[in-house]
Amino acid sequence: MDVDFAWTAVAFILTLLTLSYLLGDNPLFRLAAYLFVGVSAGYVAVILLFEVIFPRLVVPLIFGSASEKLLAVVPAVLSVLLLFKLSPRLTTLGNPSMAFLVGSGAAVIIGGAVSGTLFGQIRGAIQPFALTQSGNVLQAGSQLMGGIILLIGTVLTLIYFQFSARRKANQQISRSAAVQAAAFGGQIFIAITLGALYAGILAAALTALIERFDFLRTAIQTFLP
C-alpha cells in the first residue's frame, strides 16, 4: 500500500470522526479528541526531551566544563524538587520550584506585555502623526485622520477601564458625566474590536471547515477507482 494513500486514509477517518461532533457528543469524537491530546502531548514531550532536557541539562552535566556543570546543577535540583509535587506528603518540597516557575513566568509575561503591547501601542499611536514620509497632501490627510481616530480610540478605551468615582451629595458613588461619556465611547471601540476579532475567528474557522470538506471530496475521489 502506498504511504501517501495510507496517510490520506488516516486523515480521512480522523476528519470524519471529528465532524461527527455535529451530531452531538459521541464516542467517535472522543476517540479523535483522545488521539489529538495524546499525539500533542507526545510531540511536546519529545521536543522538550531532545531540545531542552538533553542539550541544556544532561549534556552540560556530563560533558560540560566546571562552570557549565555548576550552572546546570541549579535547574537539575529544581527539576528534582518539582517531582515531589507528585506526592501529597512531600509536596511542600516542590514549592521552591513552583515559586521559581511562577515568578519567572510572571516576569516574562509582564515584560512582554510592557515591551510588546504597551510600548507597541504607544508607538503605533504616535507613528501616524509622522507626516514626513507622506507622498502628497491627500495621503498625509488620510494618515493624520487615521492617527487621530486611533489616538481617540486608545484614550477612550483606557478611560473605560478607569473605575475611580466620587461620592455625591446624595451619598451615591458614580463617575462624572464627562468620564461616563468617554467610557461609553471606549465601550464602542471595544465592541468594534471584539466584533472584528470574532469575525476574523469565524472566517478562519469557516475557511478550515471548507478546506476539510474539500479534503473529503478529494479523498473520496482518490479512493474511488
TrEMBL record:
The chain crosses the membrane at residues 6-24, 31-50, 70-86, 98-120, 140-161, 182-210. It comes from the Bacteria. Keywords: Membrane, Transmembrane, Transmembrane helix. The keyword Transmembrane applies. This is Uncharacterized protein.
